[in-house]
């Protein structure tokens, strides 16, 4: 552990103007506040913030960052407050420490939700000051270095979180050293056998090629000297994790990889980079598809270098990286290499495009888990580089499509895109983009995101925007449909329908607003009948009750009198016999019907063409010859339709309006299938008789929104 004077000397070595007094006070403050607290390893807890501060000095960060690193756990784990830190160390330190403090006081439903909420706060904090992220990465790195002291289950969880979130974040800001170390420790924990296997092979190659690496370096130095290029050359072995990732990605064996060993040629300027490349390619055969120029098209995190694969000296397949010394510094240290510590300025995270995109995902996600899922997608390495018609470079994940490209340009462009020109040719929106493609997005104000897009887009930003629109649009339709269904149900029972009555039963349906109840009814999660019973709990008699429950049927006689309270009348039954309508065929007055005697349930009424009757063909004794009585049409019955509807905004509402205009009432609706262009639905409608249902079918068939409609028999 660094002593107080050692830490101060480290900071002063690269920043002579650093606030020595504040550094000393912060060191002592952290030591006193953490007091007798111990880490899992048994070390004093304050050793952790001191080591975090030490990691930060390696990247030559300003004294504000070092002080915040020393204090980063005080608010969470001690009685220190943000206000106290603001008074003692200033507003910048307080803001950074607050951004690093976890949401320990909030009770959350799951570990995933807690992780997502913590990451949300980290994102918001680093959008104001990127130093929050730098300190968080240093904090995570030291925790990973001491991971072996934790329990196995906790080790696995922390390692997975590191690979999913923190290593990609380090890559995003170009902190290659931290990214590589985080990946290696996590990989060793999560895939121990794979780690040991790859490490053993690397050790074997190292022993076998102990003279090979110096020989290759010597030959490359000679090549550069003969070509008149002043260069420093070194050999670099790929990390076990990056080898494992490449083996998975390419479905290749260890022996098939050509770039396990890479050599760096560091030169004075950009012109010398291309001169060195010319020398290499003139002397050695290039491996196809192994050339990448990140100088002319840098990665979004600022990475610049030329990569090429060749059959090099000693007839060995190697990767060569060519860069300037300045590029090398940025590639290894990322944002930290640009740090203006002398000015004491904070770098606003919102200036980084990728952070801005994560903030947009945060606004559009429906819940913390979805936000975390989409940000994981957004943070992984960019591997495809495409151009706008104006020549601007857009970096995207591999397998991205024009829709991903459109959302990367701007959310409005993504929401209204109708087509794309790739290299001047119109292509489908699901076309996979290739490196160097020039993409022009065609838009229309009348266009809206399609649910189908969610199946082929790969960026988190695109997925979040599409899902948000689909959720909002679907909810609007369900709300409108649910309100109509409730209004008709109440009206049909001669009961007053008002939002005031619905407010009183919100807890019954776990709803926060009246709109929530409408949406649940429209979606079929709650029936209109259940809502009505909740509002009027003492109300019993109902037309609806007759079609959803078994009931007694009265026989005909000269003394029978028809009244409005009489149940549905069917001829051919013994008075008092229990009857129910079969759910397989939903018979209606006007259909030819037959009765089937069922054990314990009385008589089931089927339509004569019901497929379910086949199972009773060998039991004629169970068949009853029945028919509809004269009063059958006085009640309401359920008719079931199969409908194929255009997948466009508003069509569900149009369907409901057409049924309502025909005096029908939707009792239930179920979406059975959905494609990019159509919905398939099963709709249960309250009707008087077969003719009423036929009229509704005729009306629906005349609509442009309805592709197909027919009565459903099952």
Any overview of this molecule?
The protein is of the alpha+beta class. The strands form 6 sheets. Strands 1, 2, 3, 4, 5 and 6 form a 6-stranded mixed sheet that branches. Strand 20 and strand 21 (678-687) form a beta hairpin. The relative contact order is 0.05.
Report mean pLDDT, rounded to a whole number: 80
Strand content of the residues, in percent? 15-25%
| Rg, Å, rounded | 35 Å
Structural class: alpha+beta
Largest sheet: 6 strands, mixed
Low-pLDDT segments, ≥5 res = 103-110, 339-351, 541-568
How many strand segments? 22
Shape: elongated
Distance between the amino and carboxyl termini: 74 Å
Q: What is the oligomer described by this structure?
A: single chain
Helix content: 40-55%
Q: Determine the number of helices (DSSP H or I, runs of at least 4 residues).
A: 27
Briefly, what is this?
With 714 residues, this protein is of the alpha+beta class. Helix content is 46%, strand content 16%. Strands 1, 2, 3, 4, 5 and 6 form a six-stranded mixed β-sheet that branches.
Features:
714 residues, alpha+beta, 6-stranded mixed β-sheet, 5-stranded mixed β-sheet
Please specify the SSE layout and strand pairing.
Elements: H1 4-14, H2 20-34, H3 47-58, H4 63-71, H5 74-77, H6 82-89, H7 91-100, H8 111-128, H9 131-145, H10 152-172, H11 176-190, H12 192-208, H13 212-226, E1 232-237, H14 240-250, E2 261-267, H15 270-283, E3 285-286, E4 292-293, E5 306-311, E6 317-324, H16 325-333, H17 353-364, H18 368-379, E7 384-387, E8 393-396, H19 402-409, H20 411-415, E9 417-422, E10 425-427, E11 439-443, H21 460-492, H22 499-503, H23 514-523, H24 528-535, H25 543-548, E12 551-552, E13 570-571, E14 578-581, E15 593-598, E16 602-607, E17 623-624, E18 627-628, E19 637-646, H26 651-661, E20 665-674, E21 678-687, H27 690-701, E22 706-711
Parallel strand pairs: 2-6, 14-16
Antiparallel strand pairs: 1-2, 3-5, 4-5, 5-6, 7-8, 9-10, 9-11, 12-14, 13-18, 15-16, 15-17, 19-21, 19-22, 20-21
Helix pairs in contact: 1-2, 2-4, 3-4, 3-9, 4-7, 4-9, 6-7, 7-8, 7-9, 8-17, 8-18, 9-10, 9-11, 10-11, 11-12, 12-14, 17-18, 17-21, 18-21, 21-23, 21-24, 21-26
């Amino acid at each position: 552990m660094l002593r107080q004077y050692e830490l101060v000397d480290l900071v002063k070595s690269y920043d002579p103007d650093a606030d020595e007094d504040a550094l000393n006070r912060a060191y002592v403050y952290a030591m006193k506040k953490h007091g007798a607290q111990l880490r899992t390893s048994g070390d004093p807890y304050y050793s952790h913030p001191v080591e975090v501060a030490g990691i930060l000095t390696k990247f030559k960060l300003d004294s504000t960052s070092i002080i915040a690193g020393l204090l980063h756990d005080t608010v969470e784990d001690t009685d220190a407050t943000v206000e106290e830190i603001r008074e003692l160390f200033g507003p910048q330190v307080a803001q950074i420490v607050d951004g690093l403090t976890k949401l320990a006081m909030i009770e959350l439903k799951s570990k995933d939700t807690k992780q997502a909420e913590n990451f949300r706060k980290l994102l918001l904090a680093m959008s104001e000051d990127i130093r929050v992220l730098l300190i968080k990465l240093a904090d995570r790195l030291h925790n990973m270095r001491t991971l072996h002291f934790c329990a196995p289950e906790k080790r696995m969880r922390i390692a997975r979180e590191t690979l999913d979130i923190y290593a990609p974040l380090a890559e995003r800001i170009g902190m290659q050293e931290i990214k590589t170390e985080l990946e290696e420790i996590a990989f060793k924990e999560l895939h121990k056998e794979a780690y040991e296997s790859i490490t053993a092979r690397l050790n074997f190659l190292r022993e076998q090629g102990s003279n090979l690496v110096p020989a290759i370096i010597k030959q490359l130095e000679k090549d550069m000297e003969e070509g008149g290029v002043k260069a420093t050359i070194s050999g670099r072995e790929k990390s076990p994790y990056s080898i494992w990732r490449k083996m998975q990605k390419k479905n290749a064996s260890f022996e098939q990889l050509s770039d396990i060993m890479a050599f760096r040629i560091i030169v004075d300027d950009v012109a010398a980079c291309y001169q060195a490349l010319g020398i290499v390619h003139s002397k050695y055969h290039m491996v196809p598809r192994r050339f990448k120029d990140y100088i002319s098209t840098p990665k979004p995190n600022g990475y610049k270098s030329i990569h090429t694969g060749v059959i090099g000296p000693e007839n060995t397949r190697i990767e060569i990286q060519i860069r300037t010394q300045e590029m090398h510094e940025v590639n290894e240290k990322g944002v930290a290499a640009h740090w203006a510590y002398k000015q004491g300025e904070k770098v606003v995270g919102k200036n980084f495009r990728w952070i801005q995109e994560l903030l947009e995902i945060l606004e559009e996600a429906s819940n913390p888990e979805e936000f975390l899922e989409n940000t994981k997608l957004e943070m992984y390495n960019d591997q495809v580089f495409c151009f706008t018609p104006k020549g601007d470079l857009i970096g995207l994940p591999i397998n991205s499509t024009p829709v991903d490209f459109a959302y990367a340009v701007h959310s409005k462009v993504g929401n209204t895109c109708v087509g794309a020109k790739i290299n001047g040719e119109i292509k489908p929106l699901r076309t996979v983009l290739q490196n160097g493609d020039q993409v022009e997005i065609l838009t229309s104000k009348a266009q809206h995101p399609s649910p189908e897009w969610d199946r082929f887009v790969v960026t988190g930003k695109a997925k979040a925007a599409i899902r948000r629109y689909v959720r909002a649009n679907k909810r609007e339709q369900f709300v409108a449909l649910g309100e109509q269904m409730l209004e008709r149900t109440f009206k049909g029972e001669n009961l007053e329908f008002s939002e005031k009555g619905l407010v009183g039963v919100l807890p019954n349906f776990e709803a926060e607003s009246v709109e929530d109840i409408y949406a649940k009814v429209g979606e079929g999660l709650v029936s209109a009948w259940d809502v009505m019973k909740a509002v009027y709990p003492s109300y019993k008699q109902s037309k609806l009750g007759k079609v959803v429950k078994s009931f007694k049927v009265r026989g005909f006689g000269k003394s029978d009198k028809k009244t409005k309270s009489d149940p549905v009348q069917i001829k051919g039954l013994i008075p008092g016999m229990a009857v129910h309508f079969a759910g397989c065929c939903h018979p209606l007055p006007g259909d030819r019907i037959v009765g089937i005697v069922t054990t314990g349930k009385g008589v089931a009424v089927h339509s004569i063409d019901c497929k379910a009757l086949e199972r009773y063909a060998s039991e004629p004794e169970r068949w009853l010859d029945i028919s509809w009585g004269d009063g059958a049409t006085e009640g309401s019955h359920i008719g079931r339709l199969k409908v194929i509807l255009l997948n466009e905004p508003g069509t569900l509402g149009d369907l409901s309006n057409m049924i309502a205009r025909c005096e029908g009432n939707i009792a239930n609706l179920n979406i059975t299938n959905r494609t990019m262009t159509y919905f398939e639905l099963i709709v249960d409608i309250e009707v008087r008789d077969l003719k009423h249902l036929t009229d509704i079918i005729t009306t629906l068939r005349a609509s442009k929104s309805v592709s197909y409609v027919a009565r459903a028999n099952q």
